[in-house]
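Subject: Sanity check before I submit

Could someone independently write out the structure tokens for this chain? I want to compare against mine line by line before I put it in a report. The sequence has 477 residues.
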Amino acid sequence: MPHSRYQSPFCTRYASAEMQYLFSDDFKFKTWRRLWIALARAEQAEGLPITDEQIAELEAHRDDINYTDAARREAECRHDVMSHIYAYGLQCPSAKGILHLGATSCYVGDNTDILIMRDALRLLQGKLLSVMALLADFAEKYKDLPTLAYTHLQPAQLTTVGKRACLWLNDLYLDEQELEHRLDTLALLGSKGATGTQASFAALFDGDGAKADAVETRIAKELGFEKVVPVSGQTYSRKTDALVANVLSGVAQSAMKFATDLRLLQSFKEMEEPFEQSQVGSSAMPYKRNPMRCERICALARYVLCDALNPAFTAGAQWFERTLDDSANKRIAMAEAFLGTDAILNLLLSICDGLIVYPAVIHARVMNELPFMATENIMMDAVKKGGDRQLLHEKLRVYSGQAAAAVKKQGLQNPLPGLLCADAAFGLDNAALEVLLDPARFAGRAPEQTAAYLRGVIRPLLSKHSEMLGRKASLRV
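---
Independent answer below. Compare away.
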């Protein structure tokens, strides 16, 4: 590639080769030719005078796109579809007369876009499910490990590392369900003609609407679709693009939440994203292990979130049966939304395949906060031994204030356990206090919730799609 021109970072740094291929010229124009062949075959089956030899000729040149001929013609006619019809006709002289018969430009353009989105969603689905499988295993492994839970980014109560992973996992589960719904409801445009009335196809079959319907049913079946859109203008509704982009935005939202949490946890030294042996964290500070992958997820997610607005504006800006102000925007926005989401999922695969947990740090942080959280339990234990609740409450208030001051003003470890053991009113020694301060007693039902969620929701989904699991990703830079 020349270094004197702009090149999209999606191609050079981020998106996978598989996703890039789906939005390539080769895939696009080969799909146009598949559609032209499917149209000719369907029209022949419904009685039009199209020969097997003509279809065979079209088949013979289905994949060898003569780009130079098409580019030369487009420079003259300023119409990409007409230029490729011309180029295909040069290769198929006996079939050029029946090529694109009854169709309008959106027959190849829109149907191809639907086919690309279907294949791209399937590619993303496999990666998304593979990320979910990795997170499910991680949640299972750490379902019993207590950790600080936060509200307002302030220590609140305890949860477990595995339960927190289920929060990330459930966001992705919601995204996967939306993605499946979009795949299940995605329909081909079919062969609707210039304004969606099938007028040209009705004319070809002397007004026989059943044959016009049969043509697009045959086309859909050949391209792997069970249905076509029931009603349209020249194009499929641009709301389809907006709905698909919303799915991609959802994945970006979930990934950004995960990556932001992990960036914070890495700052706390509780968890880390993978860090390779020769990886450099900083050009100035050799010791640093920056969360580069999570930061990149957040950066790309912001792009995808903003990009999802483009199809929404396009859907609202369409006039009557069609306008062309969708084309230039849509070919950029939809491609880059998919490429960006693909890059995000590649990063998630890379991170979740090697998440690092530091249980000792987690425990130390828990134990520095837990005495505050356990004060009610300690008070109730002392009351059971005959203590005065009001007196104990006041003592705990005072000791908690002293301990908080020592932690915040002097940078000390939490001295509250020692203060309580030294006060006979609580009847505690170190061994008894250790029992009361067992973190597992303060995580509620987090372990059971984790196990039930994985067993009842995630494992059945992963089992249903087992053939799609196991995707891996390697980062270029």
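---
OP: Matches mine. For the report I'm noting this point. The two ends are 18 Å apart (CA to CA).
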